[in-house]
UniProtKB/TrEMBL annotation:
The lineage of its organism: Bacteria, Pseudomonadati, Bacteroidota, Flavobacteriia, Flavobacteriales. This is VCBS repeat protein. Coiled coil: none annotated. Residues 517-585 form the ASPIC/UnbV domain. It comes from Maribacter polysiphoniae. It comes from the Bacteria.
Length: 1109
C-alpha cells in the first residue's frame, strides 16, 4: 500500500510538472531572480482603508537599461516601502542596487513612474510620482537624474525635480513624457488625484476652469533642463480623480492627444491636441459612454485594422457572487442628473472602445469581446504574448480589503461605535484573485487563457510591464504586488517548437533630445495587404513604463513586405522585405522629409470616396424628434428596457397625388406627426398632420399608407402605443384617416373597429386577393404587464371598411407574443402571402395563409430560436427564386450571452398581488471564485428586486444570501404557480436561407453587425452588381441602466455576395453614419430621377437623409 501511495505521488508530480511546463509563462522564483520586492502595506488604527481610501492603489513598474549594458533592468515603486532598482544580470537573474543608486525615497509614498533621458546625456533617468502624505515636501514628485556608473558599473542618481521645475505636489498617480508641441523636446503630463474624497460620487457642477485640487498638470520642456507649468494656457482644466493616462494620435492629424481615465463620478477626458499648444476635451463627440470607476488604460490597434482602440478598466466582478454582493441597485436618476449637470454616460465595467476612423464615434464592444468583467482591476496591457500577429490583453487586479462589500457596509454602519478600528478591519473581505490573460482570437474577440498561460495566481496586483528580459523575441511579464513578492514571468514561447512564433523587434534611436523616439509611429505591411500599426509611447497600463522597443509578432510569416516609420517631426523612412526574428535598429538620421501624398493610412486618415453622402440639409430637411423622458422603471422597476422609447416611425408614399413620393414621421405624445412633401426639385416642405392639442396626445408606434377605398389615393392608419398611459387609456386607440387626394387627411373612425391596445406595428396587404388592402396590427405589451403579450389584430378591408376578423381567421394573434415587426410574403410560393412576425422573447413566427384562415408553421428552423427580435426583412438574397429572411436581433454585445444550453429565462406574475406584473429575469453566470460553474441566477441586484416587490426583501437577510440564490431557489412552487415563463436562447442578427421545403437555415450576419440591436434594414444594390446589399440601423438608448445604453452601432452597409453572404463596409468607406438611437428607415424615390433618398429617424435625434454618390 505504501508503494502504491509513493507511485501515485510520483505520477501526480510528473503530471503537475508537465502541466506547469506546458503553460506559456513560467513564474521565476525570487530565489533564482533575486527580485524580492514586496509592496508591503501595514495598516494601523489611524491609517487604514477606512481612513485613507487610496491606501491600496499600489505601485508601478518601469523597465529600462539604466547601466547601458543592453539588458533590461527593473524599477519598482514602493508605497510604504522603498523603491527598488534591479540590474539585469542575464538568465532572469537580477542584482538589487537600490541603496547604492540612491533611488529608495523611503520617506515618501511613491506611485507612478516614467523614464526619460531628461538631460540628453545618454543615461536613463527616472521620474517618480508621490502621493498620500500631507506636507508639500512629502507630496513632491521626484526626478532621479542618472549621474553615470561607478567602478562597479552601478548607476547612481541625484534627485533634481525641483531644479527642473517638475516637483509637482498634486497627489500624483502617474506621469508621461511626450512632445505635445513637436518642438523636439519631451514635455511632461502629470496625472493627479487629490485624496480628498468628500462624496466623490455625488452629482454637482463640473469644475472645468482648472481650479480643482485634482486638476492634472502639463509642463512644457524649455529645452534647457527646465520646465514651465503651462496647464491653464494649454486648456488642461477639467477635474478628475485620475488613475489612467495614455498618449496617442487618436484623430490622425499628427499631433499627440491625451486620454485620462478618471475614478468616481468624474468623466474620462479625451484632450485632442489643437496643434497650437492647446487641447480641447472632445470625449462627448467620440465616445458614447465610458467606465464609471475608470482605472488604468491602454491604447493600441489590437485588431489590426489601422484604427487605434482604447481599453479602460473598472471594478465589475466576473461571477455572480461578486456582482450581487458589491452592487446594491441601479438608479435611473443618474441619467436625469447626467443631463442636468452635463456628465457623459458611465457604466461600471471595462470598456473596449474600437476605433472607426476620423469623425466617427468609437464602438464600445467590451461585452461582446468577453473582457468586460475582471473585478477590481488596475493595469490593462495590449501585447502580443504568443507572437501570432495579434495583440493579447493582460489585466492585473485585486484589493486587500473590499470596502465595496455591501454586507460589510451595513455591518460597519451598525457597529462602528462599539468596535475598535482593527476589529472592523478584520471583517472586511479580501479580493485576492488571479490576474486575467486574454488571447486575441484574431476576430476582435478574446479568450480567457489565464490558467492555460500559467498566470492564474491569486494576488493583489497593480502596475505591470512587458519586456523581453532575455532577448529571445517574446515578451516577458512583470507585476508589482501588494503584500506579496513581485511576479516575474518568463515567456517560454521560444521553447515551443511546434508553434509558429516569428517576431520582429524595432529599436528606435531618436534625436538627442528624444533618444527613445517617443511619439514615433510604425506600420508593418504584409504580402496580403494586412498590417500592424503601433505608436511608440512608454507609459502604459497603470503607473508603469514598458520596454523601450516596438515588438511585433509575425505568426507564420518570416518577413514583412515593408516597414514604415514616421518620427514625431514628420520625417519618414521605409524599408522593404524586412526579415523576421531580429531586432532592427531604426535611426532618426536615416529618415527624410517626404511629400505628404506619399504617406498612407494609418499614418494619415484613410483616403476614401464614400458611397453615401448625407443630404439632409441640402434638401431642406430640418427635423429633430422630441419626446418627454418617461421613466418606465418607476412602474416596473426590473424592466429589461423601456417600452416608451420606440419611435419615431416612418411611412412613405405620394400623399398629394403630384407624382412624387412624400413621407410622414410619427410623433411622441404631445407632438404632431410631420408630413414632408417632396417638391419637383427633390427638396421637401414640412407641415404638421394635427393642429388640435387632443390629437397630439397619442404616440404613434406604426404608420401605414394604403388605399382604403380604392379611390386612387393613400389613406393613413396610425397605431397607438407606448406604455406611458394607464391601462385602458383612450390614447391607446388606433386611428384611421382618409385622404382627399390632395394630401389633406380627416378622421374616419367609423370605417374601422375600436382597437384599444398598446400596439407596435402595422403592415398593409391584400392577403385574401379580393382587391382591397387589409391590415395586420401588431401588439406589444399592456401597461405595467410586461411581458404579457398585447393582442394583435387582423383587419379585413370590406369594401372600404376595416373589420376585425382576428377571432375567425387567425385567433392565434390574440396571444402570439410581444410583436416588434411583421411582413407579408409568399414564403412557400403558393400564390398566397403569409404573415411573418418577429418579437421579444419569441421565435420568428410564420403564419401560413390559407385564404380563409391562418395557422402557425412548425419545424421551420426558426421556431427553435427564441430571441429579442427587433426587425424583419424579406427578400431573395441568394437568387434562387424563393424568399429568404433577414432578422435584426439584440446582437452579441450584451450582458447575458444566451445560448441553447444557457438560455435567459423570464418568470413573470403579479407575485405580491399589487396589480403590477413582476418580470424576474435570470441568466447564466459563473457562481463564485471557488466554483466557476455556470448557473442561472437572477439578473437583477437585490435592491432592484425588492424595489419591484417587498416579497423579495423578506426572503433574504444579507446580500451574500441573495448572491447564492439560483433560479430554482428564488421562488417557491406555490409562487411559481400560473407564472409565465419565457426564454431567449439566441441573440445574433441573422440571415435565414429559405431551403424550399418549409425550412430555413440560419446564418449569422457579420460580427460587425452584432454589436447592438438592429432596428431596421433596407435592401439596396450600392455597387450595381445585381447582388442585394443591406443598409442597417440600430441601437437602444432605452435599455436598463446598469448595462446602460446599447449604443455601439454607427449604422452599417453590408455588401452581399449574391449567395446569402455579407461583408460589412467600413463606415468611412460607406459614408453611412447613423450613430444615434436609430429607429426606422425608408427609401423614397427622388423627384429628379437620381438615386433614391434613404430617410432615417432617431429617437430624440435628428432625422437624417442619405443618397448614394
Amino acid at each position: 500500500m505504501k508503494k502504491i501511495h509513493i507511485l501515485t505521488l510520483i505520477i501526480f508530480t510528473v503530471i503537475s510538472c508537465q502541466k506547469k511546463e506546458n503553460t506559456l509563462f513560467s513564474k521565476v522564483s525570487s530565489d533564482h531572480s533575486g527580485i524580492t520586492f514586496n509592496n508591503k502595506i501595514v495598516e494601523t488604527d489611524s491609517f487604514n482603508i477606512l481612513t485613507t481610501e487610496y491606501i491600496f492603489n499600489g505601485g508601478g513598474v518601469a523597465v529600462g537599461d539604466f547601466n547601458n549594458d543592453n539588458k533590461q533592468d527593473l524599477f519598482f515603486t514602493g508605497n510604504q516601502v522603498a523603491n527598488k532598482l534591479y540590474l539585469n544580470q542575464g538568465d532572469f537573474k537580477f542584482k538589487d542596487v537600490s541603496k547604492e543608486s540612491g533611488i529608495e525615497a523611503t520617506n515618501q509614498w511613491k506611485t507612478g513612474v516614467a523614464l526619460i533621458d531628461i538631460n540628453s546625456d545618454g543615461f536613463l533617468d527616472i521620474y517618480v510620482c508621490a502621493a498620500m502624505f500631507q506636507s508639500s515636501s512629502e507630496m513632491a514628485n521626484l526626478l532621479f537624474v542618472n549621474q553615470g556608473l561607478d567602478e562597479d558599473g552601478i548607476p547612481s542618481f541625484k534627485e533634481m525635480a525641483k531644479a527642473y521645475g517638475i516637483a509637482d505636489t498634486g497627489n500624483s498617480m502617474n506621469a508621461t513624457f511626450f512632445d505635445y508641441d513637436k518642438d523636439g523636446f519631451l514635455d511632461l503630463y502629470v496625472l493627479n488625484n487629490t485624496d480628498i474624497h468628500k462624496l466623490p460620487s455625488n452629482y454637482r457642477v463640473k469644475i472645468t476652469d482648472g481650479s480643482a485640487l485634482s486638476n492634472d498638470r502639463l509642463y512644457h520642456n524649455n529645452g534647457n533642463n527646465t520646465f514651465t507649468d503651462v496647464t491653464l494656457e494649454a486648456g488642461i482644466t477639467i477635474e478628475g480623480y485620475g488613475l489612467g493616462l495614455a498618449i496617442a494620435d487618436l484623430n490622425y492629424d499628427s499631433w499627440p492627444d491625451i486620454y485620462v481615465s478618471n475614478d468616481y463620478l468624474t468623466n474620462d477626458v479625451l484632450y485632442l491636441n489643437n496643434g497650437d499648444g492647446t487641447f480641447s476635451n472632445k470625449i462627448d463627440e467620440l465616445l458614447k459612454h465610458q467606465g464609471r470607476f475608470s482605472m488604468g488604460n491602454d491604447i493600441s490597434d489590437y485588431n489590426n485594422d489601422g484604427f487605434l482602440d482604447i481599453m479602460t478598466l473598472d471594478m465589475l466582478g466576473e461571477n455572480n457572487y461578486r456582482q450581487k454582493t458589491t452592487i446594491r441597485n441601479t438608479k435611473y436618476n443618474d441619467y436625469v442628473l447626467n443631463e442636468k449637470f452635463g456628465y457623459e454616460y458611465q457604466y461600471m465595467r471595462n470598456m473596449l472602445q474600437t476605433g472607426q476612423g476620423v469623425g466617427i464615434p468609437f464602438q464600445e464592444i467590451g461585452l461582446m469581446a468577453g473582457i468586460s468583467k475582471t473585478d477590481w482591476s488596475w493595469s490593462p496591457l495590449f501585447v502580443d504574448m504568443d507572437n501570432d500577429g495579434y495583440r493579447d490583453l493582460l489585466i492585473t487586479n485585486g484589493f486587500p480589503r473590499d470596502i465595496t462589500d455591501l454586507d460589510f457596509g451595513e455591518f460597519e454602519f451598525n457597529v462602528r461605535r462599539y468596535l475598535k478600528p482593527m476589529q472592523i478591519l478584520d471583517s472586511i473581505p479580501k479580493v485576492k484573485i488571479p490576474n486575467y490573460a486574454y488571447k486575441n482570437n484574431q476576430n476582435g474577440l478574446f479568450k480567457d487563457v489565464g490558467e492555460e498561460w500559467g498566470l492564474n495566481i491569486p494576488s493583489f496586483s497593480n502596475g505591470a510591464v512587458f519586456a523581453d528580459l532575455d532577448n529571445d523575441g517574446d515578451m516577458d511579464y512583470v507585476v508589482n504586488n501588494i503584500n506579496d513578492e513581485a511576479f516575474l514571468f518568463e515567456n517560454t514561447l521560444d521553447k515551443k517548437l511546434e508553434q509558429a512564433h516569428n517576431f520582429l523587434k524595432v529599436d528606435l534611436k531618436g534625436p538627442k533630445t528624444n533618444t527613445s523616439g517617443i511619439g514615433a509611429k510604425i506600420a508593418i505591411r504584409f504580402q496580403d495587404n494586412t498590417l500592424q500599426y503601433y505608436e511608440h509611447h512608454l507609459n502604459r497600463g497603470y503607473m508603469s513604463s514598458v520596454q523601450d522597443i516596438a515588438h511585433y509578432g509575425l505568426g507564420s510569416a518570416d518577413s514583412v513586405k515593408s516597414l514604415e516609420i514616421i518620427w514625431p517631426d514628420g520625417k519618414f523612412q521605409k524599408l522593404t522585405d524586412v526579415k523576421g526574428n531580429q531586432t532592427l535598429t531604426l535611426d532618426y538620421i536615416d529618415a527624410t522629409k517626404v511629400d505628404p501624398n506619399e504617406i498612407a493610412f494609418p499614418f494619415v486618415p484613410k483616403k476614401t470616396d464614400p458611397i453615401y453622402k448625407d443630404v439632409t440639409d441640402s434638401i431642406g430637411i430640418d427635423y429633430i424628434h422630441q419626446e418627454k423622458d418617461m421613466i418606465d422603471f418607476n412602474v416596473q422597476r426590473i424592466l429589461p428596457h423601456k417600452l416608451t422609447q420606440n419611435g419615431p416611425c416612418l411611412a412613405a408614399g405620394d400623399l398629394n397625388g403630384d407624382g412624387t413620393e412624400d413621407f410622414i414621421v410619427g410623433s411622441a405624445s404631445g407632438y404632431s406627426p410631420e408630413i414632408f412633401l417632396q417638391q419637383k426639385d427633390g427638396s421637401f416642405t414640412k407641415t404638421q398632420l394635427f393642429t388640435e392639442t387632443k390629437d397630439k396626445k397619442y404616440e404613434e408606434e406604426g404608420l401605414a399608407l394604403f388605399d382604403l377605398e380604392n379611390d386612387g389615393d393613400l389613406d393613413l392608419y396610425l397605431v397607438s402605443g407606448s406604455n406611458e398611459f394607464e391601462k385602458g387609456s383612450y390614447f391607446y386607440t388606433d386611428r384611421l384617416m382618409v385622404n382627399d387626394g390632395k394630401g389633406n387627411f380627416s378622421f374616419a373612425m367609423d370605417k374601422m373597429p375600436d382597437i384599444k391596445a398598446s400596439g407596435s406595428v402595422v403592415k398593409a396587404h391584400d392577403y385574401d386577393g379580393d382587391g382591397y388592402v387589409d391590415l395586420f396590427v401588431g401588439g406589444r405589451t399592456p401597461f405595467a404587464e410586461f411581458p404579457t403579450a398585447e393582442k394583435s389584430f387582423l383587419l379585413k378591408n370590406v369594401n372600404g371598411t376595416l373589420k376585425d376578423v382576428t377571432e375567425t381567421v387567425c385567433p392565434t394573434l390574440n396571444n402570439i407574443g410581444m410583436i416588434t415587426d411583421a411582413s407579408w410574403a409568399d414564403i412557400d410560393q403558393d400564390g398566397l402571402s403569409d404573415l411573418i412576425l418577429t418579437g421579444e422573447f419569441m421565435p420568428i413566427t410564420i403564419l401560413k395563409n390559407g385564404t380563409s384562415s391562418f395557422h402557425k408553421l412548425t419545424a421551420t428552423g426558426l421556431d427553435s430560436l427564441n430571441g429579442w427580435w427587433e426587425s424583419l426583412l424579406v427578400h431573395d438574397f441568394d437568387g434562387d427564386g424563393d424568399l429568404d429572411l433577414v432578422a435584426g436581433n439584440l446582437g452579441a454585445n450584451n450582458f447575458y450571452q444566451p445560448t441553447k444550453e444557457r438560455p435567459v429565462t423570464l418568470l413573470a406574475k403579479d407575485f405580491d398581488n399589487n396589480g403590477t406584473v413582476d418580470p424576474v429575469m435570470f441568466a447564466y453566470f459563473k457562481d463564485n471564485f471557488n466554483d466557476e460553474t455556470y448557473r442561472s441566477f437572477p439578473t437583477n441586484f437585490w435592491g432592484d428586486l425588492y424595489g419591484q416587490s417587498p416579497l423579495f426583501r423578506a426572503k433574504f437577510n444579507s446580500y451574500k444570501e441573495y448572491a447564492r440564490t439560483t433560479q430554482d431557489e428564488l421562488l417557491t412552487p406555490e409562487e411559481l404557480n400560473d407564472a409565465m415563463k419565457l426564454t431567449v436562447n439566441y441573440d445574433k442578427s441573422s440571415y435565414f436561407e429559405n431551403m424550399g421545403n418549409g425550412t430555413f437555415k440560419c446564418h449569422q450576419l457579420p460580427q460587425a453587425a452584432q454589436i447592438a440591436p438592429i432596428n431596421r434594414m433596407l435592401v439596396n444594390d450600392f455597387n450595381n452588381d445585381s447582388k442585394s446589399d443591406l443598409l442597417l440601423i440600430g441601437n437602444n438608448f432605452g435599455n436598463e441602466v446598469f448595462v446602460g445604453r446599447l449604443d455601439a452601432f454607427n449604422g452599417g452597409l453590408l455588401k452581399g455576395d449574391g449567395k446569402g453572404g455579407f461583408e460589412m463596409i467600413n463606415t468611412q468607406e460607406s459614408g453611412f453614419l447613423v450613430s444615434g438611437d436609430a429607429k426606422d428607415m425608408i427609401s423614397i424615390q427622388n423627384a429628379n430621377g437620381t438615386n433614391p433618398y434613404i430617410v432615417i429617424s432617431q429617437n430624440r435625434g435628428r432625422l437624417k437623409v442619405f443618397q448614394k454618390n
